[in-house]
Write a structure and sequence with these properties.
The chain has one domain. It is about 70% helix and about 0% strand. It is built from 2 helices and no strands. It has helices spanning about 10-30, 35-50.
Length: about 55
């Protein structure tokens, strides 16, 4: 059985995108080296979940 999101509203999707982008930008500004890129990729991944269509 596949995992899927159900009943995620527009507000939650907007918050996911905003927080994901904020984390990615903050990581690149305040952290250094490989850790900055790892955290930024995590934030970008979280932001992308806000763009996933609800089933």
């Amino acid at each position: 059985m596949a995992f899927y999101r159900k009943n995620i509203g527009g507000l939650q999707q907007t918050v996911r995108v905003a927080l994901g982008v904020a984390v990615a930008v903050a990581a690149l500004v305040y952290l250094a080296g490989g850790m900055a890129w790892l955290v930024a990729l995590g934030g970008a991944g979280f932001a992308l979940t806000g763009f996933a269509p609800a089933p």
